[in-house]
Every structure is written in C-alpha cells, then in structure tokens.
Amino acid sequence: MTELTRADDWQPTATIATLRERARLLATIRGFFAARGVLEVETPILGHGGSTDPHLDSLSLTATTPAGRKRLWLQTSPEFHMKRLLAAGSGPVFQLARSFRDGEVGRRHNLEFTMLEWYRPGLSLTALIDECEALIREVLPTDPGPLRQRRYRALFREALDVDPFTTSLADLRRLAGQVGGLAMDDADRDGCLDLLMSFVIEPQLGRGGIDAVVDYPASQAALARKRLDPEDGVEVAARFEIYLQGLELANGYDELTDAAEQGERFADDNRQREALGKPSVAPDQRLIAALESGMPAGSGVALGVDRLIQMALNRESIAEVMAFPTPRC
Amino acid sequence: MANYSTNEFKGGLKVMLDGDPCNILENEFVKPGKGQAFNRVKLRNLITGRVWERTFKSGESLEGADVMDLDMEYVYTDGDMWHFMKTDGSFEQYAVDKKAIGDVEKWLKEQAVYTVTLWNDNAIAVSPPNFLELEVVETDPGLKGDTAQGGSKPATLSSGAVVRVPLFINQGEVLKVDTRSGEYVSRA
C-alpha cells in the first residue's frame, strides 16, 4: 500500500512545460549522436551480475527466468551490457539508460535516474573529453565558458596545500577530520581524499568553465586502465570527470580491456565490500568472457542526464526536471 | 532503542547525538563521482534548541532517541515546577522544570492544551498552541471611537506576555494572540 504524505502527492514535481523542454533536450542528444554515426542501443536494466564497486549499492530482485528462479541485479549503469556489444563488434554505441543506485537520495540524486552512456572504440581519452564538451555545449542554452583540464594532484595542492599521492595517511586523516568535522581515524587514503574532494574541491569546480579532472590516483581507477604519469612518475588512473557549476556531470574511462585484470578488480571490490560490511555482488562473468574474446580498446563515458537537463533549464534540484522522483513514485 | 543508519535518516527522526536527543531536519547525500559517500545532516538539539550541522560516513548509524510529543493540559505551577496533565483521560501528570518551560512560561493558561516533548519519559520542551485567547490585565486606557486608525501600545496579558495592541483595546478585554510571532490577532 502506498501512503500519501500530502494531498497533492500524485502531481509530477516537474511542470508539463518542463517535461516538454526535457523531451526537446533528449531529442537534441539523440541528434548529436546520430550526426556522429554513434548507434543508439537498448540493453537490459536487469543483469545476472551487478556492479561490485564498493561505493555503489545495487538493488536486486528475484524473478522467474527460463532457467528458474534467479537473483537479478538492477544495473547501476549500462556499462557491462554495452561493453559486451563492443566486444561483439557493434562499433560506437550510446544509450539513454535508466540506472538504479540504492541509498542515493538528495537534491542531486534520485534512486533511479537517466544515464547517458557512450563508447568510442579507438578514441583517446582526450578526444572523448572534447566530445563531452561538444555535447554539453549543444545542450546548454548559454556558453558555459572554456574547457579546462585539471589534474587531480594539482587541484589538491592548490586548494589544500597537500599532495594526494605522497602525504602521509595520518596527515590526510587529520585534514579530512577537520574539514568534515567527524572522526576519520579508521578511514583509508581514498576515503579521506573522497571527503576532501566532495567538501572542498568539487564546489569550486566548473565555475566559469567546464572542468575535466584527470589523472586520478590508481586506487580510484574503477574500470579504467592504469598508466604511469610521465610528469610525476606515479601510477594514475586513465579516467576523467567533468564538472560544471560545482556538480559532477560525467565520468569517463580509457576502458580496461584485460579480462584477467577485470576479474581481479571484481574480486578486490568484493573483498573491500566485505571489509565495509556490505553484501558481495555477483560479478558479471559474461563481461569477463566478452573481454577474453576481445573488446576493442577505446574510451567510454557516463553522463547524468537529469543533472545536465537541470543545468540547461536552470533548476535548483533534479526533482524539478523529473516527472516523479522516488518519494512520489 | 533501535539504531538508525544514515540511509534511514529523514526529517522528523529523533536520534541521540553527543548525549542529547536531536530531531533530524535535513539529510543531504554527498558523493564525489566515484568513491565514498557522506551525509551532511542538520539536526535540532531538543534540549538546547540549537541547530547542528554534522557529517557522517554513509552507512554510519545513530541510536534512536525515545522522544514523544504528547498533548497535555496546563494545570498549575508550584513556583518551581509547572504541572501538565495528559488529555487521554488517564489524568497522568508531568512536572516540567524551568529549563524545559523556557520562554513558554509567558504563554501559560490553565486548561489550554500544549505539546509536551518527553525524552525517556521526562519533559524536555513545551510548545504552546499557535493561538491563545488571553485577557488584558494592564494597558493604557483605550481611545474611544479610535477603531480604524493605526498606532499601537503595549498590553500585559494574564499569562504574563506583553504584546503590542491597537490603541482602542481596554483592560479586561480578551484577545486572540499568535504565540509564534507574539502578535495581536483580534478581539476574541
């Protein structure tokens, strides 16, 4: 049974006029990729495997499948299915996919949201950043300012006078604890860096321009390749994040194509999940098999469409550009 | 009491923080693109009334606070304590101390119904009804016939509160006042 909390609870939180604008912007996005020869695809929202990312909480359900009752995972992004298409020879693909992340609630988050994800075999990370910029410019009604590549390490040095790669864990814990006003004594390096990134650096990003943050610590690689930074000689993750107006908009990788390493990262993730007291998630064996058969090297990126639309329409929260956010679903 | 994890935090949830019961006002989820999430939470300390802003790692939990808001009728004061009685027919009484009564002391009227906040069955706060009807016990004499013109004067009410009233109001009249703003509304 559903419970009405207010008499007008049945109403959409976006006006009908806003929904028209939303539809127009979605058409713009589809037009952008059609003009560039990127194929639109649709892949399942459910999967036999889920995201093992220790900081993503997947929803799952049990359903009757042709193979009997199975636990299926609601996808946190369409990444695994789309990579399997790449391995099957699809060429460049994009998708507007409904994605689900448990626990993500707030002005900038909704339990389910629309992810724009696209993959470009053979394209470098820098070329993909440029394509992201072009798309953002096409969707926004006004010029957001120039694109700037910002190195993760330099951002920390400038904003906090610490080096995220070499500062001692004790110093990072102290600084993160001060900034957040909470005990960080048992936090790991990435936990401390995540807090400093969220609380100090992010709010300053994407002001007067589009910021692409690059060269993340290797420990934050997720599904990106790792490489040696020619400037610093340290191992960094070949990924980027796009920020605009203090908001994270997109997350791109030079995609990991090594099946063995992918399998190790899944196992690593589940070990971390266990340490965090989180349930383990079935890794996607079909993705591993697809990588074994060979996925073309290239780059891919996921962009939060609701946030981009929120910015294009100059709204305060993503609820204002969604028909029915979770509290009203 | 049960423990509540950050993903159960919502407006109105009562939790213990630093030994005091608190009411959660806002809970904002903060997360860098990839990586650990945090919750920025605004809470009102129910003892001091102060609003705190605290950060928690997502998944951390707080102990629930045994806090209840109950309707109670004001009965009397013995000088040290103020006595309220449940309106559920049980005639059960609660004594409220000076700290918990706070500013509401000047809005007390016998038999009026107040919201009394109990923590572990002790009264920690009292809120008055939004509107009360109270008698004027002291004010300058009213100006006859001056019912339209602006201007106001102070009037002391039977509960002890002093409010600005129109010039035509006389001692002995019963007025409707808004306890939230401390403003005169109308003659009762």
UniProtKB/TrEMBL annotation, chain B:
Compartments where located: Cytoplasm
Organism domain of life: Bacteria
CDD domains documented for this protein: S1_EF-P_repeat_1 (cd04470), S1_EF-P_repeat_2 (cd05794)
Entry keyword Cytoplasm: yes
SUPFAM superfamilies for the chain: Nucleic acid-binding proteins, Translation proteins SH3-like domain
Pathway named in the protein's UniProt entry: Protein biosynthesis; polypeptide chain elongation
Domain Translation elongation factor P/YeiP central: residue ranges: 69-124
GO molecular function, one term: translation elongation factor activity
GO cellular component, one term: cytosol
Predominant subcellular localization, coarse grouping: cytoplasm
Family classification: Belongs to the elongation factor P family.
HAMAP family: EF_P
Function field: Involved in peptide bond synthesis. Alleviates ribosome stalling that occurs when 3 or more consecutive Pro residues or the sequence PPG is present in a protein, possibly by augmenting the peptidyl transferase activity of the ribosome. Modification of Lys-34 is required for alleviation.
Name of this protein: Elongation factor P
